[in-house]
Design brief:
Layout (H helix, E strand, L loop, with lengths): L3 H25 L3 H14 L4 H13 L3 H14 L4 H13 L3 H14 L4 H14 L2 H14 L4 H6 L10 H7 L4
Helix pairs in contact: 1-2, 1-3, 2-3, 3-4, 3-5, 4-5, 5-6, 5-7, 6-7, 7-8, 8-10
Length: 178
């Protein structure tokens, strides 16, 4: 038998998941202020929603609020030290704030913890593209797209890949089709 408290908890999780999905869509559409609001609503419904917290950190980073993003990631890591996406989100914030060496350490930790997570590899590919390491960029992007081919269209227009966009390997990787 489901108790009223369990039913309310399930309903809150469903509302949180709905807000989270909307936040991700808004983030992917580069509507970061709106994404932040949706992600905050998700966290309000479920304060333990770790994926929403790391998505919020990524959104804060895109809004230039990198120190807030790092602090939020540190909170998540303290609570769940094996959650690779938290390290990746922290790495993105560190990298955008000019701390490339610290970012690299966190990207490596995220990839170590979640070797089959497409977002971890995609973000690591962005790091390498921005750092000018084409070989590592290709390796990480290839792995990300093996895990989730739907990211091809995002990669094709992602400004982080501007330095490699004209390379033959990049064009082949992001080519839409079978």
């Amino acid at each position: 038998m489901i108790t009223p408290a369990e039913n309310e908890s399930d309903t809150a999780r469903l509302r949180a998941a709905t807000h989270f999905a909307r936040g991700r869509q808004l983030f992917n559409a580069n509507r970061f202020e709106e994404a932040l609001q949706a992600l905050e609503e998700a966290i309000s419904e479920d304060p333990t929603f770790t994926r929403a917290q790391t998505a919020k950190a990524n959104t804060l980073t895109m809004l230039g609020r990198t120190e807030e993003a790092v602090a939020l990631c540190d909170e998540v890591i303290a609570r769940l030290p094996t959650f690779g996406l938290a390290y990746t989100a922290k790495a993105s914030a560190l990298h955008r704030s000019g701390r490339a060496a610290d970012a690299l350490e966190n990207y490596r930790r995220g990839a170590e913890l979640e070797p089959d997570n497409d977002l971890v590899h995609y973000n690591f590919a962005c790091y390498w593209a921005l750092e000018g390491n084409e070989e590592e960029c290709e390796r990480e992007l290839r792995r990300a797209l093996e895990l989730d081919a739907s990211a091809k269209s995002k990669a094709a227009t992602d400004e982080d890949f501007a330095s490699v966009r004209d390379r033959e390997w990049f064009q082949e990787l992001v080519a839409l089709g079978p």
